[in-house]
Amino acid sequence: MKRQLIKTQDGSKTLLINDLEETYHSKHGALQEAIHVFIKNGLNLINYCEINILELGFGTGLNVLVTFDEYLKNNKNRKINYFGIEKYPIFFEEASELSYSELFPNQIIKDLSLEIHKIEWEKLVELDVNFHLKKIKDDFFNIKNMDLPPIDLVYFDCFGARVQPDLWEKEIFEIVASKMKTGGLLTTYSSKGSMRRALIELGFEVEKRQGPPGKREMLIAWKK
Q1: CA–CA distance, 28 with 21 (Å, rounded to integer)
Q2: Proportion of the chain above pLDDT 70, given as a percent
Q3: What pLDDT sits at residue 1?
Q4: Which domain holds residue 92?
Q5: What is the CATH number of the domain that holds 138?
Q6: Whether pLDDT at 204 is above 80
Q7: How far is the CA of 68 from the CAs of 27, 37, 57, 147, 208, in angstroms?
């Protein structure tokens, strides 16, 4: 799939898959979306001393960067284990062109913006004393066969239902739910009705929240 670099409205960059007319992040602001959906309505709602995060999918790595940035600012006393799943990794040259180092004042994050794309797949790596990252190259439906710790927080960041409808139906949420702790949280930029109904059927408490720039609503869901 051919990917094109584009600039979003907050100045941060993302990738556009030309054949699908689908972007990796919101055109209204890649950085703003990541912080709003996955930090403000995700990480900051979890109070555990140790947090296991599962991301579908790893993509450009922006979500792990905003998570690590938040960890350095406010969460260094907590342990974070981050598992990012991606079937089609981007190329290192694409990661370089995204220039995510320019988005963060902290030099540690600047250096990390490209280093995370050099990390070996399937290997748990220490980014800091209390922050570990494991990138997994696999299909999302194979999560059911993966040896993961009980997940506290899910970043559900798949491509939209228009291009990948099977990733927004009950089967995938049932698989993800099987890996989550009771009381665990799933957060996503979408407010798709079929997803909401599927999560409720699976016993989640679903809440609509204000969406990121350019989107009226998004969903979070607690596993009960």
Answers
A1: 15
A2: 100
A3: 72
A4: 29-223
A5: 3.40.50.150
A6: yes
A7: 23, 15, 16, 23, 26
